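Ops channel
N.P.: pipeline sanity check, posting one input/output pair.
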């Protein structure tokens, strides 16, 4: 998606530190991590804090993947939804996963505070319905979260209040969570990278891993090969997200990389911006193919939506997203779109996360399914725990069964396009 990267708001407005040099020669470490997104960086940080030596290889630059280009909505729970997790793994494990996700929200706040990461965090998130039937769904969800999970930061927002919070006729009622929120994901990722580097993680950018030799037994070393060097390590973490491609075919089969797009308006000015979302919460609608938006600190509207399951950037995303913005906020018909970019999310068929091992000391984290801003951080911490000998919490996730995407390598994408047409149709009903 490099063609749209020239208009990536985060890249245009952040000041990344000087790049880390690419891998050259042979490096030895206790742990080798593939991928410089939040999952890989959080694992790296937690591992050095436990005394491991860590080498992290990033194909491009830290934050090049979803972590650095997302909508920045930091939301409780899982993309699959808690009820679905319960059906898949049963009540006890689903409850453990819930607790881990909630801990992930606290961890994110701790990491921001402990490492002094300036990432514009704002508390408050609205999940909004677009059809009358969504009202009952959202009200029931609030009740379940209160009664079953003791999660008290959420409340149901009625139509009149919602209309006062979000200046759009499109939405019915909402679920407000005071503990979810939004941040600048690129600054957050770079902040984790800086903290990891300060703590002693050896980071190599522009160092795509082209081949992995994975030791099949616990006494062997894994070897990661890049163009001009290798990393040899007792432990391995593969955290390449949607951009891992076919490096590990067993992982590729479980994922579909889905293109999704974001745009920002020009600077709207404080009064005009604040009139759109009066409490400055992040907003996401309830649809499968959802619209999500928030304000930036300099009062732009940052708006994501529209997905491409065909794997190519098929349209002028600035124009298409501009039209979607006006559908939600007709009062922005004259606002210019200044930035537009895209990225890939790593979706599993059941939208539950896919964590596990490729061999005794070779771990992977993937399948955050477009809901990874919070979960990636705690997932990295769980990997560090597991490598240090306490794998109970990491292993809860191994209970989630993951099917291959239907259709095999050749027919996977057409099958997904059909499935998505079905979901979009459901959104319309
Ligand atoms: C446009 C967009 C909007 C999103 N909005 C939200 C949102 O609002 N809220 C939310 O919760 N989630 C959102 N997401 C999803 C979220 O960004 C991801 O779930 C999360 O960032 C995944 O983090 P990660 O560390 O697993 O992977 P990534 O951030 O993708 O990092 C993986 C890294 O691995 C590197 N890599 C891949 N292969 C190799 C290799 N062979 N060698 C070396 N390095 C390699 C990549 O270059 C990449 O930098 C969004 C995603 C996108 C794309």
């Amino acid at each position: 998606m490099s063609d749209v990267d020239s208009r990536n708001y985060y890249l245009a407005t952040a000041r990344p530190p000087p790049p880390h040099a690419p891998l050259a020669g042979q490096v030895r470490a206790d742990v080798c991590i593939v991928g410089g997104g939040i999952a890989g960086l959080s694992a790296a940080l937690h591992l050095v804090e436990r005394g491991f030596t860590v080498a992290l290889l990033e194909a491009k630059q830290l934050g090049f993947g979803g972590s650095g280009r997302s909508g920045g909505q930091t939301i409780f729970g899982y993309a699959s939804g808690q009820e679905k997790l319960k059906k898949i793994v049963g009540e006890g494990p689903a409850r453990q996963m819930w607790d881990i996700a909630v801990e992930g929200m606290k961890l994110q706040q701790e990491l921001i505070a402990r490492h002094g990461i300036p990432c514009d965090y704002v508390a408050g998130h609205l999940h909004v319905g677009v059809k009358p039937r969504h009202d009952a769904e959202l009200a029931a969800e609030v009740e379940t979260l209160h009664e079953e999970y003791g999660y008290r930061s959420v409340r149901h927002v009625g139509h009149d209040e919602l209309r006062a919070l979000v200046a759009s006729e499109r939405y019915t009622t909402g679920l407000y969570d005071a503990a979810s929120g939004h941040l600048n994901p690129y600054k957050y990722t770079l902040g984790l990278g800086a903290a990891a580097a300060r703590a002693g993680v050896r980071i190599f950018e522009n160092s795509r891993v082209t081949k992995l030799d994975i030791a099949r037994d616990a006494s062997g070393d894994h070897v990661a090969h890049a163009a001009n060097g290798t990393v040899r390590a007792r432990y391995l973490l593969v955290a390449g997200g949607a951009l891992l491609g076919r490096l590990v075919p067993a992982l590729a089969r479980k994922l579909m990389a889905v293109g999704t797009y974001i745009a920002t308006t020009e600077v709207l000015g404080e009064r005009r911006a604040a009139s759109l979302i009066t409490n400055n919460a992040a907003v996401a609608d309830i649809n499968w193919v959802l619209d999500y938006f928030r304000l930036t600190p300099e009062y732009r509207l940052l708006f994501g939506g529209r997905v491409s399951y065909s794997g190519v950037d098929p349209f002028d995303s600035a124009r298409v997203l501009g039209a979607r913005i006006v559908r939600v906020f007709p009062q922005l018909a004259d606002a210019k779109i200044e930035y537009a970019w895209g990225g890939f999310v790593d979706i599993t068929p059941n939208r539950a996360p896919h964590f596990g091992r490729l061999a005794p000391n070779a771990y992977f984290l993937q399948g955050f399914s477009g809901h990874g801003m919070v979960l990636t951080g705690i997932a990295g911490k769980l990997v560090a725990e597991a490598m240090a000998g306490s794998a109970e919490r990491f292993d809860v996730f191994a209970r989630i069964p993951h099917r291959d995407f239907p259709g095999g390598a050749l027919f996977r994408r057409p099958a997904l396009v059909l499935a998505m047409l079905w979901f979009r149709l459901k959104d319309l009903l």
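N.P.: looks fine end to end. The mean pLDDT is 92.
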